[in-house]
Amino acid sequence: MEYETPIIETERLILKRGTLEDYQKVYKYDFTKLRDINGEFEFIKQDPKKIEGYEKVYPESYDWILYLKSSGEPIGNIVADREQKDIKGIELAFNTHPTFWRNGYTVEALIEIMKFLFNQGYEKILCGYDEGNIKSKNIGEKIGFMPYKVEPSAWQKNGVPITTYTTIMTKEHFKNLYMHESKTRL
Question: I need a labelling partner for 139 at 20 to 30 A (CA). Which of 37, 72, 93, 108 fits?
Fold first, then answer.
């Protein structure tokens, strides 16, 4: 089955497929160095060759670039893939250019994407982060993701075992948080 990434609008953003140049702007820095995993946090420019192919459509994924409505500037990327049919779930991954951190853009985009995914028939949305990646953890908690799985020593960075955490949002929990007119979270 091939998924089609729709255009989604939020109050401040337009989410849609992007060009290679847009991915290069979003991934200007090597995000593996910005996640604070094992104490590593450095603004290191990304090797442009590592971005080649990001603009290609993969059959079983939704892939959005986040654009500011005000300027059209690409500021982030959200991917929904790794479907888990046994639980009617799909996993989200996201990155935001550091210039645009702490403005609520990623949360705004994730909520609208989750509305879309639940309307596509998914019952659960997963989101993971690695030990030390407090920014991703905090975004998930702010939205309302709940703990789901912990994988101790899932991988190693510079010889240090790193734990991976997976969080979950059920359709019902999402509806309770975001789909009632009387409730506002943001």
Answer: 72
E-assigned strand segments in 17-133? 62-68, 74-84, 89-96, 124-130
Query: Strand ranges (DSSP E) for 6-61?
Result: 8-9, 13-16
Burial of 31 (0-12, 13-18, 19+ CB in 10 A): middle
For 65-111, what is each residue's pLDDT tens digit?
Answer: 999 999 999 999 999 999 999 999 999 999 999 999 999 999 999 99
Q: Report pTM.
A: 0.91
In contact, 55 and 20? CB cutoff 8 Å? yes
Nearest residue to 76 via CA among 128, 6, 11, 29: 29
Q: Which amino acid is at 146?
A: M
CA distances from 4 to 18, 114, 145, 156, 175 (A): 13, 15, 25, 35, 24
Which top CATH class is 8-178? alpha beta
